């Protein structure tokens, strides 16, 4: 069943005219005829879990918001910057009104009058489309004072980010939205109690909010029949890397991962096989070809030692070395660390130096033990999960590919010793071992 991607490529779907012709904003009308707690009940019954990475139940998150006459906020996190993730971009580009309708319904459920859409700075084209859609919705009376003749008044502001990975973290996003440097905040207090401008704040991902109109249309209980008991509904999956048909696919949660990688994405190219894969973006612990039959849902991925995360599957075939991928990953997180807390600031940079030491032929097998130990010290000790986002996949790579790393380490030492002695390495041999970056 397709919900979010139902006729997603229909021409003009990004316009209000086509969206309304397909029944757009009927879920909003239905929701406004219900009391906020009735709408919340439908979201609770659906069992939908956040599609941005944490997998927290949306209805439960809304229920944490305090009641009463106060300024409350809803923030849509559209800062899609997790490597390998590009599903939210397609929603915003092709069906922006579905997202806007979801924001408006969720704001009614949470009795929220002020909403914001924080979009990744690099998504300039998608931001332009959203701005046009928001203007159409406002002119049609879906946004503003007492919308559609109801008691609900709501504003919606689009805010463009400046291209920082850290702003995808919800509290870093809030600081950025307030005009500050995007640094994560200490929790507690959590955003539901003290978030944007010190007010209670609901933060949800694009895909999560875009699903809300379908839940109201179908009914929460019917939506919960899709997927598994603890991972209900459908999920957008971004597949990239060494597959024949990369792209975005909508799947029902709980199907075997093999059906996604080989069935939908076509698997690796001829003569190659899956070496390992990231189930939920670059920050998820890697799984190997032996894990391809693990069901693709939140709990099964956790039992397998990884996480569903943002739903971005990155496939790596046997043409790549483990050190090559590790270097690229660690370099990214070291660059994107905001530097606010020591475990992340020092841990990411130290890990990068260790990877470079291995590549330069300066490391010993004992350094791999130290590297694994450092990753364990990073996890759970940072202000936000950026440090964990590097430490979890790196730790899993060391654990699952220890022998290969030791072989690469020894090969690098031999190359370094040969260079010191003036030995000439035949053309092609160095390239075979060195990967895509130079030996230092």
Question: Termini distance?
Answer: 52 Å
Reported for the largest beta sheet, the result is: 5 strands, mixed
Quickly give the structural class: alpha/beta
Rg calculated over all Cα atoms: 23 Å
Number of helices: 18
Low-pLDDT residue spans = 424-440
Query: Using DSSP, what is the number of strands?
Result: 9
- Percent strand equals 5-15%
How confident overall, as mean pLDDT?
A: 93
What overall geometry do the principal axes of the alpha carbons give? globular
Please provide the ordered H/E string of secondary-structure elements. HHHHEHHEHEHEHHEEHEEHEHHHHHH
The neighbouring-strand order within the major sheet is 6-5-9-7-8
Q: Helical residue percent?
A: 40-55%
Keyword list:
440 residues, alpha/beta, five-stranded mixed sheet, four-stranded parallel sheet, 45% helix, globular
What's the short version?
Helix content is 45%, strand content 11%. The chain has 440 residues and is of the alpha/beta class.
Task: Tell me about this structure.
With 440 residues, this protein is of the alpha/beta class. Helices cover 45% and strands 11% of the residues. The chain has helices spanning 16-21, 26-32, 36-46, 58-63, 87-94, 96-109, 124-139, 170-177, 206-218, 220-224, 257-264, 298-303, 322-336, 342-360, 365-378, 386-400, 402-420, 429-434; strands spanning 73-78, 114-119, 155-160, 201-205, 234-241, 247-252, 274-278, 287-288, 312-317. The strands form 2 sheets. Strands 6-5-9-7-8 form a 5-stranded mixed sheet, sandwiched between helices. A 4-stranded parallel sheet has the order 3-2-1-4, sandwiched between helices. Strand 2 (114-119), helix 7 and strand 3 (155-160) form a beta-alpha-beta unit. The longest helix has 19 residues, at 342-360. The chain is globular, with a radius of gyration of 23 Å. The N and C termini lie far apart (52 Å).
């Amino acid at each position: 069943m397709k919900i979010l991607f139902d006729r997603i490529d229909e021409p003009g779907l990004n316009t209000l005219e086509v969206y309304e012709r397909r029944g757009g904003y009927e879920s909003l009308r239905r929701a406004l005829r219900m009391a906020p707690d009735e709408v919340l009940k439908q979201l609770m019954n659906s069992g939908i879990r956040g599609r941005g990475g944490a997998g927290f139940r949306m209805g439960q998150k809304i229920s944490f918001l305090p009641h009463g006459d106060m300024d409350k906020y809803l923030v849509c996190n559209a800062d899609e910057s997790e490597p390998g993730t590009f599903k939210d971009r397609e929603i915003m580009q092709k069906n922006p009104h579905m997202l806007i309708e979801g924001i408006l319904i969720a704001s009614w459920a949470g009795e929220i009058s002020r909403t914001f859409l924080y979009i990744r700075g690099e998504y300039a084209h998608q931001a332009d489309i959203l701005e046009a859609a928001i203007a159409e919705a406002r002119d049609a009376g879906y946004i503003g004072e007492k919308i559609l003749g109801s008691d609900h008044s709501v504003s919606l502001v689009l805010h463009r980010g400046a291209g920082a990975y850290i702003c995808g973290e919800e509290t870093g996003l809030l600081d950025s939205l307030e005009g500050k440097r995007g640094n994560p905040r200490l929790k507690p207090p959590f955003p539901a109690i003290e978030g944007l401008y010190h007010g209670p704040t609901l933060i949800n991902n694009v895909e999560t909010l875009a699903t809300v109109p379908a839940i109201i249309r179908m009914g929460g209980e019917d939506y919960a029949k899709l997927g598994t008991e603890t991972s209900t509904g459908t999920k957008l999956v971004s597949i990239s890397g060494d597959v024949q048909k990369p792209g975005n696919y909508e799947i029902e949660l709980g199907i075997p991962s093999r059906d996604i990688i080989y069935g939908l994405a076509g698997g690796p190219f001829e003569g190659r096989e899956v070496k390992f894969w990231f189930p939920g973006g670059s920050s998820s612990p890697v799984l190997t070809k032996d894990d391809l039959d693990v069901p693709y849902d939140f709990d099964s991925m956790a039992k397998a030692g990884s996480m569903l995360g943002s739903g971005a599957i990155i496939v790596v075939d046997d043409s790549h070395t483990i050190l090559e991928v590790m270097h690229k990953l660690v370099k990214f997180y070291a660059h994107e660390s905001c530097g606010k807390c020591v475990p992340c600031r020092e841990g990411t940079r130290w890990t990068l130096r260790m990877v470079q030491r291995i590549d330069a032929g300066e490391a010993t097998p004992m350094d791999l033990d130290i590297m694994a130990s450092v990753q364990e010290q990073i996890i759970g000790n940072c202000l936000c999960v950026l440090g964990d986002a590097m430490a979890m996949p790196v730790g899993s790579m060391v654990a699952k590919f220890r022998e290969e790393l030791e072989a690469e380490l020894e090969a690098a030492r031999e190359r370094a010793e040969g260079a010191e002695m003036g030995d000439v390495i035949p053309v092609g041999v160095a390239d075979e071992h060195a990967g895509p970056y130079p030996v230092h």
